[in-house]
Amino acid sequence: MTDAPESQQPGSFPPPAPATGPPARDAASPYAMGAFFALALVLAGGVVAYMMFGAGDRARGSAVDGVQEWEGLSKAHVPMDTRAEYEMYPPAGGEHYDAWQNCGVYDEPLRTEFAVHSQEHGAVWITHDPHLDRDEVQQLHDLYSPGEYIIVSPMENLPAPVVASGWETQVRLDGADDPRLGPFLRQYVQSRDVPEPGAPCSGMFDGTEEDFDPERTPADLGVESEEGEGAQEAVP
After folding, report:
1. Residue 200: C-alpha distances to residues 100, 120, 205 (Å)
2. If both were cysteines, with which of 57, 79, 105, 166 could 188 make a disulfide (CB 3.0 to 4.6 Å apart)?
């Protein structure tokens, strides 16, 4: 942009302002004020968005009462003849095996490292006390239908009768009829915030803890290589 000439020539555009009127720069002040307020609104919107979604664009927070969340959990793979350590119980993300647990319902406890891998793909793992009333267990089983990213299984020593856990999120429930379970599933099943949304939750390991054979390798289960997966990460 070039500087305006010091004086207007006859016939030039725009014509010079009348000598008795306000300075020409004042005529543009309403536009400047409008731009100022527009910028303020944009900045305010940015602050609100940052507070809602965080720097990583993750929709932190939940309308479901009692939900716990974690951040930055490891996605590294560990050998299938070892056990991973978790910050919470039951696990809600962290190190896991190369193979994942098939989504579905199970009558026996599962190997956690398989189920955590499914959480990384967007599954919610619903664990329940092994002594939970049979009708309540059936209610939990009925939440799953083929293709759903839901795992249901019993687990010993739970901190609540029922616990629902997704990747980096968890809620402790009073039972199968706890009204918070439905909203939790709607928010976190196949959430966009998991490391690998849309990755499969079938076609892999469908056994239980009792079926697990530590001598088997991921290749024995049909695992090849998951592009972009934590398999390439170095385990600390």
Report:
1. 9, 10, 12
2. 166
Condensed to tens digits (0 to 9), the pLDDT of residues 181-194 reads 999 999 999 999 99
Nearest Cα residue to 88 out of 155, 170, 7: 170
> Who's near 203: CB < 8 A, 6+ residues apart?
102, 222
Q: How far apart are CA 196 and CA 149, in angstroms?
A: 13
Whole-structure pTM value: 0.71
In three-state secondary structure terms, 9 is: coil
> Any idea what DSSP says for residue 162?
E
Per DSSP, the residues of 197-213 read: TT--SSSSB---TTT--
* CA 64/CA 61 separation, integer angstroms: 9
